[in-house]
Design a protein that fits this description.
- The protein is elongated, with a radius of gyration of 22 Å.
- Helices cover about 60% and strands about 10% of the residues.
- The protein starts with a helix and ends in a 7-residue tail after the last strand.
- By secondary structure, it is mostly helical.
- Strand 3 and strand 4 form a beta hairpin.
- The longest helix has about 35 residues.
- It has one domain.
- A two-stranded antiparallel ribbon has the order 1-2. A two-stranded antiparallel ribbon has the order 3-4.
Length: about 190
């Protein structure tokens, strides 16, 4: 799944940047620089390369940053915090590859969400600048940002728990192991 999402993300990034390049000569003298929570423009700016290509540049930097986050987070098991207060290092080695791949897939999915949001923002900016209604696109951005994040986190945690259960030996597959076959005791809560 992660490799497919990486491919989708590369295509999305190409579309966002390509669309911005295509739209540049078609822009009027002023473009929206900011949208309010209601999806309406609350600040206009002169059409300059900086103003127009700022969102695509942030999209590229976000894409690169998410790639770095995925590599950094999965390089060491101690960096992956799991539900229940443990890190991946608290689990047996047999669990690590499945959880690492799940974390990478989650980062790729979060990157997809970011690139879709940037694409919609650039499209809304162009549509509004050229006299069309960009408000529905801005409202779609808000809906995606607000609604998809909790859903994605829930799916992520469920997927991690499933990966742990599948790769952990023994009858109680949800408990971390500190060594081969030894259960780790949690300290009592105060």
């Amino acid at each position: 799944m992660r490799k497919a999402l990486d491919g989708v993300n590369a295509i999305l990034l190409f579309v966002v940047v390509g669309y911005a390049v295509w739209a540049w000569p078609r822009l009027p003298t002023e473009i929206p620089a900011h949208f309010g929570i209601d999806g309406r423009v609350d600040r206009w700016a002169a059409t300059t390369p900086f103003e127009w290509f700022l969102l695509p540049a942030i999209a590229v930097l976000s894409w690169l940053g998410m790639i770095a986050v995925g590599k950094f987070a999965t390089a060491r098991p101690q960096r992956i915090n799991l539900p229940g207060g443990q890190s991946l290092a608290d689990y047996p080695e047999s669990v690590h590859p499945a959880v690492r791949e799940h974390v990478r897939a989650f980062v790729a999915l979060a990157t997809t969400e970011l690139l879709v949001i940037f694409g919609l923002l650039v499209l809304a900016q162009f549509r509004t600048a050229t006299g069309s209604d960009g408000q529905p696109l801005i409202l779609a951005v808000l809906a995606i940002a607000v609604l998809s994040s909790p859903i994605m986190l829930s799916v992520f945690f469920i997927g991690v728990q499933k990966a742990i259960r599948t790769a952990t030996p023994g009858p109680d597959r949800s408990a971390p192991l500190s060594g081969p076959g030894a259960r780790m005791q949690r300290p009592p809560r105060a």
